[in-house]
Design a protein that fits this description.
This protein is mainly alpha-helical and 409 residues long. It is 76% helix and 0% strand. Helix 1 packs antiparallel against helix 6, helix 7 packs antiparallel against helix 13 and helix 12 packs parallel to helix 16.
C-alpha cells in the first residue's frame, strides 16, 4: 500500500477534509448523468415505436447491469486503483448518453443502458466507500451526509424535469446533460490521491472500528462473504423495503395523477425532503448511533406510503395537490433518512476490513429494491389498481419494523 492513509482533523467542517470537495464534484457530475436519463431514456424508445413494456425494460436493464457490476468493484479497485476505477465508471456512464441520439430502436438503447449500468455500478460502490475512507469512523455520518447532499441535488433538479425538457426542446439537450459524468474524470483523479492505494479498507483500523469488528465478528479483507452478509442483513432488509416503496413512487407518479405538473410537484417534494434529511441525519447518527434511529424512520415510511396508497385509489386531480405533496414529502423523509442510516449501519456492522464489500452489498440492495418496486407495484396495479399496489409497499415497510427494533440492540 503506497497511498496515504485517510486523514481528517477532529475539528472543522467535513468539507475541509482533503478529498471531500473532489468527491462532491464527482457525485454531482456522475449522478446528473444518471438522473436526467432515468425518466427520459424510456420515453426515447417510445419515440422510436416501442410499447410501454419495452420502455419499462430500459431502466430494468440499467439497474440489472448496475447490480451485476457492483459486487466486482472492490476487486477492480484493488487491481487498477481508485482513480482509474472511478474514471472508468464515469466514462461508461456518460459516453453512451451521446450515442443514444444515433437510434431510438429498443435494441441499441438497451445495449447502451447496460453499459451505463456498469458505469453506474462502479460509481456508486466506489464513491460511497470513498466517503467513509476519507474520515475517521467518528465522522462517517457527517461524511456520508455531505456525499449524499451532492448526489441528491441532481435527483431533485434533473429527474423531475428530464421528460419535460425532452418534450419541449427535444432529446439532444437531455443526452448532452447525460454526458456530464465525463466532466468528473479530473475530480476522480484528485480524489484518488487521498485514498489508500488499491484498497477498500481502512489501512489502520481506528479504535471505534476495531471495537465494532470485535462485536460483529466481521474483520479483515479475507472474511468469508456469508459472514459479511449476516452482518449487514438487517440494514439491507430495511433498505430493500424503503427503496421498493420509493422506487414505485418515482416510477408511477406520472400515471397516478391527472396533470403532469402535479406529478412533478410530488416528485419535487419527495426529492427535497429526502435530500435535506439524508444530509442532516448523518451528524445525528454520529452522536447517537445509526441503529437507534432506523426504527422511527421505518414508521414514517409506513405512514407516508400508506397515505399515498389511500390517495391514489382513483387518479389524483389538482384539487388534491396539498395532501399529495405532503404525502410525498413524508415518504421522502423516510426515503432519505433510511438511505443514510442503513448505509452507516452496514459499514458499522461489516467492520473496517470490509468497507468496499459492504458498499457493494448496500448499493446492490438499493438498486434491486428500486427495480423490484417498479415491477411489483406495477404488476399489482395492473390487476387491482395503484391503491392496493402502494398499500402492499407500505405493509412491506411495516414488516421490517421488528428487524429494525432488534438491530438497535
Amino acid at each position: 500500500m503506497t497511498g496515504p492513509p485517510p486523514a481528517a482533523a477532529p475539528t472543522g467542517g467535513v468539507w475541509s477534509v482533503p478529498g471531500m470537495v473532489a468527491l462532491a464534484v464527482l457525485a454531482l457530475t456522475g449522478f446528473s448523468g444518471y438522473a436526467v436519463l432515468l425518466p427520459s431514456a424510456p420515453l426515447w424508445v417510445v419515440e422510436g415505436g416501442s410499447d410501454p413494456g419495452g420502455a419499462g425494460l430500459v431502466n430494468f436493464v440499467l439497474l440489472g447491469s448496475t447490480v451485476a457490476t457492483q459486487f466486482a468493484v472492490p476487486a477492480l479497485i484493488r487491481r487498477v486503483g481508485w482513480a482509474a476505477a472511478l474514471s472508468l465508471g464515469l466514462v461508461l456512464l456518460g459516453a453512451p448518453s451521446l450515442a443514444f441520439g444515433l437510434s431510438s430502436d429498443l435494441g441499441p438503447v438497451l445495449a447502451l443502458s447496460a453499459v451505463r449500468g456498469s458505469g453506474f455500478g462502479i460509481l456508486t460502490v466506489a464513491a460511497s466507500a470513498a466517503a467513509v475512507l476519507l474520515v475517521e469512523p467518528g465522522r462517517r455520518g457527517a461524511a456520508v451526509g455531505a456525499y449524499s447532499l451532492a448526489l441528491s441535488l441532481p435527483n431533485v433538479v434533473l429527474m423531475p424535469v428530464g421528460g419535460w425538457v425532452a418534450a419541449q426542446w427535444g432529446f439532444w439537450p437531455v443526452f448532452v446533460i447525460g454526458a456530464l459524468p465525463l466532466l468528473g474524470v479530473p475530480a476522480a483523479h484528485a480524489l484518488g490521491r487521498h485514498l489508500p492505494d488499491r484498497a477498500t479498507a481502512d489501512p489502520v483500523p481506528h479504535p471505534v472500528a476495531a471495537a465494532t469488528t470485535a462485536r460483529t465478528g466481521v474483520a479483515g479483507q479475507d472474511q468469508a462473504v456469508p459472514g459479511l452478509l449476516r452482518a449487514v442483513l438487517p440494514a439491507t432488509v430495511v433498505l430493500l423495503a424503503v427503496t421498493l416503496a420509493g422506487g414505485a413512487v418515482i416510477t408511477f407518479a406520472p400515471q397516478v395523477v391527472d396533470a403532469g405538473w402535479l406529478s412533478a410537484a410530488g416528485l419535487l417534494a419527495l426529492g427535497l425532503s429526502s435530500t435535506v434529511v439524508r444530509w442532516r441525519v448523518g451528524g445525528l447518527a454520529d452522536r447517537v448511533g445509526p441503529a437507534r434511529l432506523v426504527w422511527p424512520f421505518v414508521l414514517v415510511a409506513t405512514v407516508g406510503v400508506g397515505w399515498i396508497a389511500w390517495l391514489v385509489r382513483e387518479p389524483l386531480t389538482p384539487a388534491a395537490v396539498v395532501p399529495w405533496v405532503l404525502a410525498c414529502a413524508v415518504t421522502g423523509v423516510a426515503y432519505g433518512g433510511l438511505q443514510n442510516l442503513t448505509m452507516l449501519r452496514a459499514f458499522e456492522a461489516a467492520g473496517p476490513g470490509r468497507v468496499g464489500a459492504a458498499s457493494a452489498v448496500w448499493n446492490a440492495g438499493f438498486d434491486a429494491g428500486t427495480a423490484v418496486g417498479a415491477l411489483l407495484v406495477g404488476w399489482i396495479a395492473t390487476g387491482a389498481g395503484f391503491g392496493p399496489g402502494f398499500a402492499v409497499a407500505a405493509v412491506l415497510c411495516l414488516l421490517t419494523l421488528p428487524v429494525a427494533l432488534r438491530d438497535r440492540r
